[in-house]
């Protein structure tokens, strides 16, 4: 019998979802703050998306922030963005192992 129940993973994903408040992107050497564009939950996976619209320049990194401004995740990029839209994605997979 499994000790860990599916509700534990569900609650951990809910907690992570609530913890992420907004994104911050380093564009042309300057950080710009963005709202989370979209969130997708799929089983034990959580994806957070940041959408850049008409900005132009070099995207060097993206960060996910808590509501108090703590950096929760950093993802490096090297994307030359034109005036077309660009979606940056973070994906988290929650796995709990019994010991």
Quick overview:
With 99 residues, the chain is mainly beta. 14% of the residues lie in helices and 54% in strands.
Strand order of the largest sheet: 2-1-5-6
Beta-strand level of the residues, as a percent range? over 45%
Q: Tell me, what's the shape?
A: elongated
Count all strands and give the number: 7
The arrangement of helices and strands along the chain is HEEEEEEE
**Structural class label:** mainly beta
Percent range for helical residues?
Answer: 10-25%
Number of helices: 1
Catalogue the unreliable spans: none
Radius of gyration: 16 Å
Largest sheet: 4 strands, antiparallel
Mean pLDDT across every amino acid position: 94
> Distance between the terminal alpha carbons, to the nearest Å?
13 Å
How would you describe this protein?
- With 99 residues, this protein is mainly beta.
- The protein has one helix spanning 6-19, and strands at 22-27, 30-35, 38-42, 45-52, 57-65, 71-81, 86-93.
- The mean pLDDT is 94.
- 14% of the residues lie in helices and 54% in strands.
- The strands form 2 sheets. The chain has a 4-stranded antiparallel beta sheet with strand order 2-1-5-6, with no helix packed on it.
- 11% of the residues are buried.
